[in-house]
Specification:
Elements (H helix, E strand, L loop, with lengths): L1 E2 L11 H4 L12 E10 L3 H13 L5 E4 L15 E2 L15 H25 L10 E5 L2 H16 L5 E3 L1 H8 L6 E5 L3 E2 L2 H9 L6 E4 L6 E3 L2 E2 L10 E3 L1 E5 L2 E10 L16 E10 L4 H7 L5 E5 L6 E4 L5 E9 L7 H18 L8 E11 L6 E6 L2 E5 L5 H16 L5 H7 L10 H19 L4
Helix pairs in contact: 2-9, 3-9
């Protein structure tokens, strides 16, 4: 058996997770079982994959595994933006080539539509809000980036509105911003509530096991040519967990950067952490002093700047600071310094609320590639993967999971073929060189972000 050497390891430090009502996790796997299909990873991608598998194959037994409790890992640690438009983090204008961007928009919107259908079907309380997003610039230099973004959206025939300084203040209550761009298609949500809600309303033929990491594995084999999902296995796949074992005909890897622990995309993935801090809820006086709309989300004109949210329950969130984390974890010792950076960023913007403090500071992993590409497809006979979402985990992950399930069951569509023809993550230099390069790039970009941070 091969060892799965990298496993998720998070503290219970995330404000999204801690602010949810207490939930009883599903059972941990104990003993030996059989399944038709196993999905590894119960975040946005894995939950969508498991649901779609169950819909298309109601006679099959689907097992969904997560190494931690649902929403404890990266799916519950992001900023809660379900973005429909291109959001290329290594592009100053967030856009790339027109055809690539058109494809990405269709892909992202398919994920949003699928997620919305689940939220509406099960009445999931996750503060689902189709309110769009703001791109904010703190200077005339940043405003040039927003104009470039606007030009890109014009080329794509996508709606947007340019915002003056006064309009930015009217929307956010903040005088900190020079100008902005509003786009209407983004959905805001409470990410931990969304994934917990999806997990608690899975179809009857899906068995969910939480706190059940896969620690060892053996890939099975099939007869004939690789790449035909309909083939029957000669030997099944075997997955070992701390207290159990599963034999199965098919496996779907929906564990983002941790797919590397299963031998996939080695030397092609970049593992980065970004960090969030969240205040307690504002009282009526604090809300009045801030002004602006009751709920909004703001993305910086420079990708290395600070993302800001005012949540439905009147908390304020700052997400900023990036670090290179090849071990796929971060240290609690880092958080003290990062919290201090967040406090400085917060005070510059929210000077009218000097007494409002952060209740929680946490980190979350991003899996990225040098060429902004994801891996999607069959990586071993009857082993499929959809990993490396490049910072768009909610929309891209949901869409990827749905399509991966369709691929595994032999379905076909234009959107599926579009995913299969992408190039995949490009090769990276040896890890020590990559780590130095990524850390240097982060430092340079955060310096260039200036007041955006």
């Amino acid at each position: 058996m091969a060892l799965a050497t990298l496993l998720p390891n998070y503290e219970n430090d995330c404000g999204w997770y801690k602010n949810l009502p207490k939930r009883q996790p599903s059972a941990t796997l104990k003993g030996a079982i059989e399944a038709d299909i196993v999905v590894i990873g119960a975040g946005f991608t894995g939950l969508a994959a498991a649901r779609r598998l169950a819909q298309l194959a109601p006679d099959k037994h689907i097992v969904l595994l997560d190494a931690l409790a649902i929403a404890m890992a990266s799916s519950g640690r992001n900023s809660g933006f379900m973005i429909d438009l291109p959001h290329t983090l290594n592009s100053h204008s967030y856009t790339t080539h027109a055809q690539t961007d058109h494809n990405m928009i269709a892909f992202n919107r398919s994920g949003i539509a699928y997620a919305k259908s689940v939220v509406e079907e099960h009445n999931i309380a996750c503060d689902w809000s189709e309110t769009g997003k703001i791109h904010g610039a703190t200077s005339a230099t940043g405003s040039k980036s927003l104009l470039a973004y606007g030009k890109g959206l014009e080329t794509l025939n996508e709606p947007f509105s340019l915002l003056s300084k006064q309009q930015m203040q009217d929307m956010t209550g903040l005088s900190y911003y020079h100008s902005g761009v509003f786009t209407p298609g983004t959905v805001m949500m409470q990410p931990a509530a969304f994934v917990q809600g999806c997990a608690d309303h899975l179809p009857d033929n899906v068995s969910l096991y939480e706190n059940t990491p896969v620690t060892e594995y053996v890939w099975g084999s099939v007869s004939g040519k690789k790449g035909k999902p309909s083939q029957s296995p000669i030997k099944p796949h075997v997955l070992k967990t701390p207290h159990g074992q599963i034999t199965t005909a098919q496996v779907l890897l929906c564990n983002n950067g941790f797919a590397q622990s299963f031998g996939q995309q080695k030397g092609r993935l970049v593992h980065v952490c970004t960090y969030g801090s969240m205040t307690g809820p504002m009282n009526e006086d604090q809300q009045k002093r801030l002004g602006g709309q009751k709920s909004w989300g703001l993305i910086p004109s420079h990708p290395a700047g600070a993302t800001i949210r005012r949540t439905a329950d009147q908390r304020l969130l700052i997400r900023s600071v990036f670090t290179c984390n090849p071990g796929l974890k971060y240290g609690q010792s880092q958080l003290k310094n990062i919290k201090a950076q967040h406090e400085s960023s917060f005070k510059r913007r929210f000077y009218m609320l000097p007494e409002l403090e952060f209740e929680d500071t946490w980190g979350g992993l991003l899996c990225m590639s040098n060429n902004e590409a994801s891996f999607f497809g069959e990586c071993q006979p009857n082993v499929f993967a959809a990993v490396c979402q490049n910072g768009l985990g909610i929309a891209r992950g949901t869409a990827s999971g749905k399509l991966l399930a369709e691929l595994a069951l032999g379905q076909n569509s234009k959107l599926l073929q579009q995913q299969l023809t992408q190039t995949g993550p490009s090769w990276m230099p040896p890890q020590i060189i990559t780590n130095i390069g990524v850390s240097a790039t982060i430092a340079l970009q955060e310096m260039r972000a200036g007041k955006e941070g």
